[in-house]
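User: I'm writing a tutorial on reading structure tokens. Could you give me a worked example: one chain, its sequence, then its tokens, then a sentence or two explaining what the tokens reveal?
Assistant: Sure. Here is the example chain.
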Amino acid sequence: MTSPNNDPFSGFHDISESGSRSLGIAPDLRRMLAVLASGIEALESADDRRGVDLRSGMQRAMINAVRLTNELAMLESRQAQNMERVSLAPHIGRIVQMMRRHLPDEAEISFDIPAGMWPIYANPDDIAGAIMAVIRNAAEAIEPGGHVSIKATNMPSSGTVQIEVNDDGCGIEPAALDLILQPFYSTKLSSRHPGLGLTRAMRFAHRSGGRIQVQSRPGSGSRVIIEIPRANGGRADVIPRLGFMDRGSPK
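And here are its predicted structure tokens:
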């Protein structure tokens, strides 16, 4: 980690609550799917080739939209179930090994999880899904020979555990930073993924009583910081919900 005076992310634009306002769109999307389905039914009487092609395209779009709706609904409705004390080190180690195959050629991924990391109180599946999603985003942003790093740190001043994912990829335009936590938004037009990666990370942070921050600058890579309260014992010992980070660079 560089010193504060030399930190290349100093003064970077970051996001906080912009994504939290956009998680209630599943009902609207379902209504749109109903309209699409009605349109397909109305086209059943069309005999010309154009009608056939149109029906086929609409059917494919509907199947894809249903898949995305189901994934979004899972993010919205799943409650904080199966919460338990979790040690991050083994989880992150396994995740990094699994994600190596998603990196571009000659790219590297490293992680630094020091001994003595505090446990957190979270759903293990949430941890895996969130960190894998953030690493996947970073992997898609870097070029061959690029680098993704994952770091975890105990934060005594706040009683939290901080998970930080950095990449040296292309970075994100300032205008896009206000949108990247919104479901289905993606800065990568060719991505095979539906644009729910950072939304998933945000939901993990929220359900675990924590917060998330994203910093980026075009040409200088990106940093995603997830901060979760430490678990001192049972659920009652978890520090009260922190909410989402305010705008401004981390200190």
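What the tokens reveal: Strands lie at 13-15, 84-86, 108-112, 120-122, 147-155, 160-167, 211-216, 222-229. The radius of gyration is 20 Å.
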